[in-house]
Specification:
It is a single chain. The protein has one domain. The protein has three helices and no strands. It has helices at about 1-15, 25-40, 45-70. Helix 1 crosses helix 3.
Length: about 70
């Protein structure tokens, strides 16, 4: 449980460093990735970083699809 708290604090700190315009998907992805990484072998930090990247990619892809429709 202590490790999970550390992961959550680290994810919040990483999310705080992101520029707000580019943070779409990062916070949610970091949170989910951090929890998944923690339970997959105590790699919460790595999971949070990967989750942030995946979340940003998906948010950018969604935004690009929305722009091309209009």
């Amino acid at each position: 449980m202590k490790q999970l708290l550390k992961c959550a604090v680290l994810a919040a700190a990483i999310a705080g460093l992101c520029v707000p315009a580019e943070a779409k998907g990062c916070i949610k992805g970091a949170f989910v990735g951090g929890i998944a990484g923690h339970f997959a072998g105590h790699h919460g930090v790595l999971g949070a970083a990967a989750g942030c990247l995946v979340g940003r990619h998906e948010a950018n892809k969604s935004a690009h699809q929305t722009q091309t429709r209009h």
